[in-house]
Write a structure and sequence with these properties.
- The complex is a heterodimer.
- Chain A is 78% helix and 0% strand.
- Chain A has 8 helices and no strands.
- In chain A, helix 1 packs parallel to helix 6 and helix 3 runs parallel beside helix 8.
- Chain A starts with a helix and ends in a 12-residue tail after the last helix.
- Chain B has one domain.
- Helix content of chain B is 91%, strand content 0%.
- Chain B contains 4 helices and no strands.
- In chain B, helix 2 packs antiparallel against helix 4.
- The radius of gyration of chain B is 17 Å and the shape is elongated.
- Classes of the chains: A mainly alpha, B mainly alpha.
Chain lengths: 255, 77
């Protein structure tokens, strides 16, 4: 595959994974700045190793045992469920019903919590280790999920998805190390909005394909499905702004 | 870690429960259409699923908007 084709194919996975890496980096940075770097870096390495074991054993076993059409169906259904959740939340944020995801605020809260817990000298910082471990494992699982989603066709699609995720990881971690502060310049809600639409689209695509449907133009249908989801979401945002013209910002856990 | 997994599952099935249940119903209807219909039906199930999911999202958000509006007006009183 030539580099330009690889770059185009890797873009969805790159964008989606970047969002997850930003969230993990924010928490690791907060731990490192308040409690020192040894424990969070060890936590990050341990979480990465755990993820590698999970993907290496469970992932390979699933791919080898489960028939391809069934795997596509299950992956498609899961993608649709999780994608709808992301899309709904992003739409509610754009409409002003749920507060926007604020990396700076999350970072400051994490700093305050970690400082409040205190740190004893000459002891290994298990709190810092576990906080970093949990964040990297959770966000890493989501990255693995994203790679499976965009690489479910196998072959070059999987290569591109893995390349996109690795590149996003390198870029976000490098930026975090260079800046030593949360990456607030990343437009997270826009990215989540786009990623939600893409996950839903891939979900619909794989699920229908697992039932024997042949999409016109095969994978070329995906941009059309994504565009349909984005158009419907834009209409939904307009509708919510008409319903709540004052753009009320309320805690809406149960809306 | 287990708490995080629990909160994700809880969020999916309870916080966003109606959307998740609606999506599962749409997937089930799509599967039934493909299983019961002929070859021609099988070739349109994807578009049917897309249409059902879009209607579901818009209706779910409309309901969310109505709930939020009711909360705002009761808070203003």
């Amino acid at each position: 595959m030539d580099p330009i084709t690889l770059a185009i194919a890797a873009t969805p996975s790159f964008v989606a994974s970047a969002v997850e890496f930003v969230e993990a980096t924010t928490i690791v940075l907060a731990v490192g700045v308040t409690r020192g770097w040894r424990a969070p870096l060890l936590g990050t390495v341990a979480a990465t190793a755990t993820l590698a074991v999970i993907i290496g054993t469970l992932g390979v076993a699933i791919v080898m045992v489960v028939p391809e059409h069934l795997l596509k169906g299950v992956v498609g259904a899961l993608l649709l469920l999780f994608g709808l959740r992301w899309l709904r939340k992003a739409i509610l944020r754009f409409a002003g019903i749920v507060a926007l995801h604020d990396e700076e605020l999350i970072y400051q809260r994490q700093l305050a919590e970690l400082r409040a817990q205190g740190l004893q000298k000459n002891e290994f910082d298990w709190v810092g280790f576990l906080v970093a471990y949990k964040a990297v494992l959770l966000e890493g699982t989501e990255v693995a999920f994203i790679v499976i989603a965009f690489g479910a066709a196998g072959g070059t699609a999987l290569t591109s998805a893995i390349a996109g995720a690795i590149l996003a990881g390198i870029l976000v971690i490098a930026l975090g190390v260079a800046l030593r502060k949360p990456l607030t310049m990343v437009p997270e809600n826009w990215l989540k909005f786009g990623v939600g639409a893409m996950l839903c689209s891939f979900g619909v695509f794989w699920f229908a394909e697992s039932l024997g449907m042949e999409w016109p133009g095969d994978a070329l249908s995906i941009p059309l499905i994504v565009a349909t989801f984005l158009a419907a979401s834009w209409l939904a945002i307009r509708m919510l702004r008409v319903l709540l013209p004052q753009g009320a910002r309320i805690e809406a856990r149960n809306v | 870690m287990f708490r995080t997994i629990w909160s994700t599952v809880y969020g999916l099935l309870v916080d966003d429960g109606q959307l998740a249940i609606g999506a599962l119903a749409a997937l089930a209807v799509t599967w039934l259409l493909a299983a019961a219909g002929g070859d021609r039906t099988q070739q349109i199930v994807g578009w049917a699923l897309l249409a059902m999911v879009l209607v579901l999202v818009v209706l779910n958000l409309y309901r969310a908007g109505l709930v939020a509006r009711a909360r705002v007006s009761s808070a203003q009183r």
